[in-house]
Amino acid sequence: MIERYLSKIIYEDLQDKMIFIAGPRQIGKTTLAKHLGSVHYKDKFIYLNWDNRQDRRVILKEEFPGKNELIIFDEIHKYKKWKNYVKGEYDKNKDNFKIIVTGSSRLDLYRKHGDSMLGRYYYFRIHPLTVAELLNMKNNYEPFSKLNVQDGSNNSSKIFNDLYKFGGFPEMYLKKDLNKLGRWHNSRIEGIVRQDIRDIASIRDLSTMELLAETIPEKIGSLLSINSLTEDLQVSFKTVRSWIDCLEQVYYIFRIYPYQSKSINSLKKEPKIYLWDWSALKEEGPKLENIVASHLLKFCHYLYDVKGHKAELKFLRDKQQREVDFLITVDNKPWFCVEVKNSKQEISKSLYYYKKSLKIPHSYQIVNENGVNYIKDGIQVVSAPVFLASLC
After folding, report:
1. Start-to-end C-alpha separation, the chain
2. What pLDDT is recorded for position 191?
3. I want to staple 45 with a disulfide (CB 3.0 to 4.6 A). Which of 41, 96, 225, 380 is the partner?
4. Is-contact 99 90, C-beta < 8 A?
């Protein structure tokens, strides 16, 4: 059992409001919620899964055993009237029991357009395991300050190598079995397409949708061209765009967009695309870029969900094709940028250009080599495990 990075803050916030926990299937949402229940409420909590017929009957009849001080609703967003239901239960019983809601599609979609539950819950996105979490690092994050990038240890390198190979989903990371990992990848794609997406959208051609999910790993780190996918799959532009939206909603992929500024002649629309499970990638370059992207996205979501900072993950690219892989912003102001390299090379000229043009406070070049950590012309060149250990 790995105690997840959100455990403490979720328990503290649960004393004040409902808790919503969202994230990919098999990332540990249910395990986290049940762990909180068993540790803090002992035998006084109940877990109810909407997909279970008996649990569904209990939910609809509102017959909760009186001893319970915590109720965990799993996948209840599949119920058409779930928002009004949960709101009603909270308003009637907030003095009697606490509520946790978990789901494998994006519960934050239901926060839009005049959310009737506004002010009644805290929302958290749970991410794959990362280097800092497995090292149990307690890093302080102050926007615009320099990250606490220290010399690494053999342990950080080992953890990074295991994460790189087996991914950050707890079951596969703990098993460390490549044969089981391959089978897990196959079943996960099938489950995402034929179960999760079916619950949020009406899609007839699931086999082609599954083909899209299997094609996406070839596009990692490059600009997303829906026109190209349209040609490959022989379906309409509108269809591919809606399918991409669905894959993002169920946490199979995430997109990051170019940073917009008057100081640079930046791109306006085309995003880059990454997988939540980087272990599905075969090529070294895209895989390294994806694992860094995933760590940085987790960092941004932590700052937003826990600390209240409007942090975002972007990338830099202009019409002259100068590009830097990642930029972290707070309130749309650049904080630090990151370029990812497979080996120690000379520092990227684009890093220098954007550092100066956008007055970015801190810049890093990440390399997939151990024992690298130096600063040159204001840019820190550092080994991937060491840099990632400074995040969350």
Report:
1. 19
2. 85
3. 41
4. yes
Q: What is the identity of the amino acid at 6?
A: L
In contact, 75 and 102? CB cutoff 8 Å: yes
Q: Residue type for 180, please?
A: K
**CA-CA distance, 124 to 301, in Å (whole number)?**
8
Q: Where are the domains of the chain?
A: 7-125, 131-388
Distance CA 179, CA 181 (A): 5
Using the predicted structure, report yes or no on whether residue 118 has a pLDDT greater than 80.
no
Q: Using the 8-state DSSP alphabet, how is residue 337 labeled?
A: E
DSSP string, 104-126: SS-GGGGGTTT-TTTTSEEEEE-
pLDDT at 293: 98
Q: Which helix (H) or strand (E) holds 257?
A: strand 253-258
CA distance 291 to 286: 9
Determine the Cα–Cα distance for residues 5 and 32; give it in Å rounded to an integer: 10
Cα gap 259→272, rounded to integer Å: 12
Cα–Cα dist 49/72, whole Å: 8
pLDDT of res. 113: 47
> Residue 363: what pLDDT?
97
Q: Which of 40, 16, 20 is nearest to 29 (CA)?
A: 20
Residue with tokens 């909270």: 90
Angle (deg, nearest 10), helices 237-249 and 206-215 = 70
Closest of 384, 371, 390, 284 to residue 340, by C-alpha: 384
Question: 7-125 has which fold?
Answer: Rossmann fold (3.40.50)
- Residues in CB range of 46: below 8 A, 6 or more apart: 64, 65, 68, 70, 71, 72
CA distance 99 to 354: 46
Give 3-state DSSP helix, strand, coil % of the chain, rounded to 5. Answer: 45, 20, 35
Average pLDDT, the chain: 91
DSSP letter at 340 equals E
Distance CA 97, CA 117 (A): 17
**pLDDT above 70 (res 112):** no
